[in-house]
Amino acid sequence: MSEISFIGTGDCGPVHGPQDGFPIERYSELVRPTLARVDLRFANCERQYSARGTASDTSPHGRQPPAMAKIFTDCGVDAVTIANNHMYDYGPEALLDTRKLLLEKGIAVTGAGRDLDEARAPAIVERNGVRVGFLGYCSVIPEGGEAAPGKVGIAPLRVVTTYEGRGPHASARVITRPDERDMAMILDDVAALRRRVDIVVVAFHWGVIWVPRVIADYQVIAAHACIDAGADLILGHHAHVPKAIEVYKG
User: Model-level pTM?
Assistant: First the structure.
């Protein structure tokens, strides 16, 4: 099989634009030369690009003018996940507008859509004869933002949390595990994609935000299960700080 070079990034999408004195092209000018040297580029698109929808109380910055999505074409991004905690900030119409806009730009999209089936659909890109498939899921979806049959939303990996007491003078241990139904769905998606492509990449928007080093239990469980099911690489984003990298089964 041929070889390809690859760069995967985390959360992308500026908040300030030309109206604030920040030209779009300036956001990417320092990284474009590096991105141009690889065969395949993948990102988490964490803004809605639309003129429709109503702002949520918690994330009024989550929607940007469609023209600001130019950052993704400036960077030559080939595929994105839109499964993240800001992809429902202005509701379902802005989500669908974002997906449509990216597809019109020739960027493959996974992670959210008009219903659960579309949200689960992979983004597939071929380079140098190598077919790479991406899947995207989110564990920090805002209330009501999950995709379902007949409902616009984000592909979920929900989390079950329990607490274990450790005596009167110690803090409780927080135990997390993936929701069994969501995990079964994701493993079905990985296995199905494995039959269609040469490389399977699963992107999760998840984890303990702003806290260095700490990896939640459910992240390890879910990542190992995906690799056992045929995934080649797990990409995690959302935490905004560097976290550990594990090599599992090579």
Answer: 0.96
- The two three-digit tokens of residue 55, written as one number: 């702002």
What's the rounded Cα separation, in Å, for the pair 4 and 155? Answer: 28
- Tokens standing for 160? 């079950």
Average pLDDT estimate for 131-160: 97
How many helices (H) does the chain have, and how many strands (E)? 7, 14
Give the pLDDT score at 1: 62
- For residues 124 and 200, give the distance between their C-alpha atoms in angstroms, rounded to a whole number: 9
In sequence order, which residues have a C-beta less than 8 Å from that of residue 23 and are 6 or more positions away?
none
d(CA 73, CA 63): 18
CA-CA distance, 127 to 226, in Å (whole number)? Answer: 23
CB 121 within 8 A of CB 110: yes
Angle at 211 between CA 206 and CA 216, to 5 degrees: 45
Sorted by sequence, the CB contacts under 8 Å of residue 52 that are 6+ apart come out as 90, 93, 94, 97
- In this prediction, residue 12 carries a pLDDT of 94
